[in-house]
Amino acid sequence: MLNQIKGLHHVTSMAADARTNNAFFTKTLGLRRVKKTVNFDAPDVYHLYYGDEIGTPGTVMTYFPFPNIGQGRPGTGEVGTTVFSVPQGSLGFWQDRLEKQGVTGIKKHETFGEKRLEFAGPDGDGFALVEVRDDEREPWTGNGISEDHGIRGFHSVAMRLRDEGATTELLKFMGYETLESKDGVTRMIMPAGNGAGLIDLETMPNISRGQQGAGSVHHVAFAVENREKQLEVRKALMDTGYQVTPVIDRDYFWAIYFRTPGGVLFEVATNEPGFDRDEDTAHLGEGLMLPQQHKHLGPILAEHLQKLED
Predict the structure, then answer these.
(1) Domains of the chain
(2) pTM, rounded to two decimals
(3) Are strands 185-189 and 198-203 parallel, antiparallel or unpaired?
(4) For residues 41, 254, 189 and 266, what is the CA-based torsion angle, rounded to 10 degrees?
(5) Could you tell me the end-to-end alpha-carbon distance of the chain, in angstroms, rounded to an integer?
(6) Taking Cα atoms as reference points, which of 281, 287, 280, 291 lies closest to residue 248?
(7) Of all helices (H) and strands (E), which one includes residue 237?
(8) What percent of the chain has pLDDT over 90?
(9) Which of 29, 204, 292, 293 has its CA 20 to 30 A from that of 116?
C-alpha cells in the first residue's frame, strides 16, 4: 500500500464559456482565481484555476472552457459531484446566496450524518457544500464572503461507477481506507491527509456510461509532496499493471495520469512548485501566464481569448 498520497490536489472540468465560468467561481462561490493560463494542447483555450489565497493543493478547481463544446451527458465512469467544505452553520447563508444569484438544482439534505447543500454549476456541473466541524484551512475572503462562511477547500468527490469493486481496491492501494457504506455509496478516507481526504463511490449498475462535454469532470488529481514521491507512486502503479504516463511538467506542478478500472481519469500531481512561481502572491491570476512553448503566441492570444471581466 502506498503512503505518499495525501488527498485531493485539484479537480479539472470543462465549460462552455470562460466568462460565465470565471464569474461563477469568483463572484458566486467567492474563490480566488489563482491562475489564468491556457491549455497545453490547445493554446486557444483557457485553463483557469480557482482556490484559496495561494492555490493550496486540496482547494483548487480548474476548468478548460472550450467555446462551442457540446453539453456533457451524465453517467457512470466519471466524477458526478465535486463537494466543498464550509463551516458549520453556514448552509443557510449559502442557500440564500445561491438562490438570489439564480443558481439551479438547489437541494438541502443530510448524508453520512453531514448537512449538505447540492446545486448545479453554469453547465449543469454537480456541486455540493458540506458543513464540516473544525476544518482549519483558511478560506479566501477577498471576494466578499466572510471567514465564517468561506469555502475551505474540497471535502470530497463522488464517482459514479457501474461496479465499485476494482476502484475500491485501487484506492486502498493508494492509501485510502473504507469509512462507511450506505444506500449504495461507499465512503473512503485518506487518514492524516491534507483536509481533502474523502472519496464517495456511487454504485449505479444500470446507468450507461457518461459522455464528456460541458459540465463534465475531465480528471481528478491526487496530491504528493514532491517529484521523488511521485516517481515512487508511478513505479508502484506500473508494477501493479497500470498504464501510467511519463511525468509531465504542468508549470505549477508535475503530473502523471492513468485510467482507473471504473473509467475515471486519475492524475497524481506534486505540491511543488506552486502557483507563485511566475506571479507574486498578491497578484495571482491577474496576468495571462503562458507555458514556455506558447509564449510566442502572447499577442495573438491576448486578442483572441475572451475577456473574463469588464
Answers:
(1) 8-304 (3.10.180.10)
(2) 0.97
(3) antiparallel
(4) 30
(5) 50
(6) 291
(7) helix 227-239
(8) 97
(9) 204
